[in-house]
Amino acid sequence: MTDQCIVLRLAGPLQSWGVASQFNERRTALAPTKSGMVGLLAAALGRRRKDPIEDLVKLRMGVRSDQPGSLLRDYHTVSDHPGIPLLSANLDAKGRQKRTSPKKYTQPTHRFYLEDAVFVAALQGDGGFIGDLAHALRHPVFPLALGRRSCVPAQPLLLPGDEGDLWSGTVTSVLGRVPWQASAHAQDRVTAVHVRLAASWDDIDGEDLTSDVPVSFDPRRRGMQTRKVHSGWIDLPTGHEPDPDAEPGRASHDPFELLGW
After folding, report:
1. Partner of 4 for a Cys bridge, out of 108, 110, 166, 178, CB 3.0 to 4.6 A?
2. What are the structural domains of the chain?
3. pTM for this structure?
4. pLDDT tens digits, residue range 186-207?
5. Please, what is the Cα angle at 178 between 177 and 179, to 5 degrees?
6. For 247, which DSSP code?
């Protein structure tokens, strides 16, 4: 069976795609990661953390940034309710966590999110398996999230294609055909005939390396491998008519458009 794609519209109030998060600093990538997408699909299929994910990792992925959003920092403080010192990462001879030394009663934490962002993710693989994934996304076993459990996706999540829920073609060709998915407010701010969107996709000849391919979600075997990606731009029509009064050759040039100014 030939390869086909499913297309997801990743939008919601908050998203957080972890990459180099450690301890009390939980960062987010500026676009969905391979590990985040594999986790979302595994949840839809009902797989648990110790279940294999090799078939999901093999899917070719591409992501388009339709609405980059803005970075949000959520500041927390952690304290023990009885007022005793917090636990540390160090273990005693019996394998139990030690108390902090010197004693620490309050610990600040920082969690970063993408606010009001919209992405389009295309995943390519064998048509039969892709069809199973589309069905699972329509009827997920576990709740789906945009990176973190608290980041609930908005609807629609799965975008219909030219063959029901499936899209024919490669990741790159599909990303060039999916209509612009930014919010109505964001689209109203653009008056140009075309919009240029940042995108990246798996490419064995790609010039960039990204360390976001999960080995396993088992807490005892967690780790990341690298993948090669190519980054580029995709031009999409906005639906606006050309301005007949605009100067020739300058109708769509706005150096500040990508910044939202």
Report:
1. 166
2. 3-180+193-250 (3.30.70.2660)
3. 0.84
4. 998 888 999 999 999 999 999 9
5. 110
6. P
